[in-house]
Amino acid sequence: MSDSKLAGQFFDAAIGLLQRVRDEEAGSIAAAGAAIADTVEAGGRLFAYGAGHSSLAAQDVVYRAGGLALMNLLTVPGTTGVDVMPATLGSALERVDGLASAVLDSSPATAGDVLVIISLSGRNALPVEMAQNARALGLKVIGVTSVAYAENTRSRHTSGGFLRDHCDIVLDSKIAIGDAELTSPGIEAPFAPASTVVTSAIMQSMMAAASEALVARGIEPPLLRSGNVDGGHDWNGRVMTEYRERIFYRH
């Protein structure tokens, strides 16, 4: 069987996007890492939020081997994945005003914490309101989004603003509007989205930058090890015990 031409084209597109982000967003990624390190050093907590498929990259940095133990998932019921039925409800909930403020008010997030908000388009009410309210509460907000949407689409939030307008630090994923890298004769719709690959890479690079910043300050990064390697469970138990007041996925 010969190799798939389209599969190769997708890899080329994804690699190209990753290279662009590495080169063009390096300063913002370093700034995000420093902000996370500041919060860890100061005794604050870390949260990540993403709606729909953007939640995949948020979940990718929570309770995982090689990740910071202090990163918690901020969940909005019905929007965190496609397990809600019908799946289309999640998309509808992203456009509901007031939902983000209700979630923040009932969450453990407080002034001095960091909240990473992931939204590819950054145009729906939920991520925009989440960023607005989080900053009003005194959180530092890091936004991971595609700036192309803010420049070429209309906001669905009453303010007319996008996620990028309400963040302390913005990381641009460079994903084109529509989130589909390929087209081909005989296939009616664009296909092969790369946003998950690129956004997850941004999140992991941010965690790496944070660990680097912590070590430079003489602080051991509170990282988790794989439970599938010898000593991993004991290591993780010690980390979770030491930082138990800042870890919420165990409660």
From TrEMBL:
Pfam families: SIS_2
CDD domains xref list: SIS_RpiR
Name of this chain's protein: SIS domain-containing protein
NCBIfam families tied to this protein: PRK02947.1
Residue ranges annotated for the SIS domain, each copy included: 36-219
